[in-house]
Amino acid sequence: KVIPIEMHKVKIVQQTNLPSAAQRLEAIREAGYNTFLLRTRDVFLDMLTDSGTNAMSDNQLGAMMVSDEAYAGSESFYKLADSVKEVLGFQYLLPAHQGRAAEHLLAKAFVKPGDVVPMNYHFTTTKAHVDLAGGKVLEIFKDGALETASSNPFKGNMDPDKLKAVIAQYGVEHIPYVRMEATTNLIGGQPFSMANLREIKAIASQHGIPLVFDGSLISENAYFIQQREPEFKDATIQQVITELMKNVDIFYMSGRKSAAARGGLIATNNKKLYEQILPWLPVYEGFSTYGGMSTKEVEAMAVGLREMTIQSIASSGADFIAYFVRRLEEEGVPVVTPPGGLACHIDAMRFLPNMPQAQYPAGALAAAVYIASGVRGMERGTVSMDRDEQGNDVPSDLELVRLAVPRRLYTMSHIEYAVDRVKWLYGLRNLIGGLQFVEEPPVLRFFFGRMAPI
Ligand code: F0G
């Protein structure tokens, strides 16, 4: 267990507050046992997500002060375009207000009813946009990807044989693109290897299918490649990113995660693909030089993209997460291994082995963690899956409680506090009961759904 060292110092702080156990119980009841519906005044450590919650650098904040307010032709846009060119190597840039907006534009431009989109794994918003366009997501991960206790360094790999079979079965004309998600979010922030990306790209290219790369967590995936794939042990993060991008036709990202900013973008060197997306940009997002972002966000992302290639920044979240995971493992708490990016993930099916998936173990555990600690995590299990067309629950492959570690936000003592409380709760796990829906939205129900104890 390596103790991570922070290569930054704190310049500005925000006061936080630890509500009493009675207040926490009241707050989670009012929130319908859904951590999304808690107010932050009732939260001690906000580990819901790393999205838009990473600490920004002094250089990012400085850049925001000099942003160029213009509807069209803003200089801020050209700074972002320069960063995209230098860091990612792409000539054409389409800004979007966040990652899911980029997904919407891609689905709008390329997915037709009846199409299938092969992926290493789905992300909630990605799947929603493919579904809404009339397409279907096919998850073609390798055997072992869903084993939560594992030593496989690259559980985010796509299975090349399954990709070949999908192409043979559906035909090239029904596959608008293949999507690879860096540091695959819903299976526990697990990376894919460079070797795998190269193999997948070769198969896709052979059939003229574009490869779409979701780079929301690109710097983490690059860091894991450097740490875990011998070919890259002496490479810089920038060199790994450059090599990754050689295999990519369309790149997109949420700017809220690796880039430690807000917003999102799509980038490519393929003029034809760019021109297929461009007309939709002002329809849904805004003019092509701001795409729904404030110019301050554009500036912050321009700096954040460059900073995410710095070794100590690329490693900052991942090293804290590794420490968090190893500490919980020491305490006997079932967690996803190897440690990934984004978060420490608790395996709710192993934590609550007697609770059926129909009672939402990950949802119940996320609520219990909050009651026990004031730490707000996020359910990533069956609650995060919408019902099928017949109205049945779709049991999730995994039931995870995600305790996100936003980059450079919390300290070691915060992590130790969370470990201590989760360990305490594990000792009392027989007291945790299941949940049922009392209010359930039809799409992405995890955001606004309200539940109650069974
Ligand atoms: N792709 C991935 C891999 C993501 O993790 C996210 C967001 C998106 C796309 C959508 O981007 O939020 O900017 O619209 N993940 C956040 C999370 C919400 O909490 O994991 P967005």
Automatic annotation (TrEMBL):
Q: Does the keyword Lyase apply?
A: yes
Which keywords has UniProt assigned to this entry?
Lyase, Pyridoxal phosphate
> Which Gene Ontology MF annotations are present?
carbon-carbon lyase activity
Per its UniProt entry, which superkingdom is the organism in?
Answer: Bacteria
Q: Which cofactor does it need?
A: pyridoxal 5'-phosphate
Protein name, UniProt field: Tryptophanase
**GO BP term (any one):** aromatic amino acid metabolic process
Q: Which SUPFAM superfamilies does this chain map to?
A: PLP-dependent transferases
PANTHER family (UniProt xref): BETA-ELIMINATING LYASE-LIKE PROTEIN-RELATED, TRYPTOPHANASE
Q: Tell me where in this chain the Aromatic amino acid beta-eliminating lyase/threonine aldolase domain is found.
A: 46-418
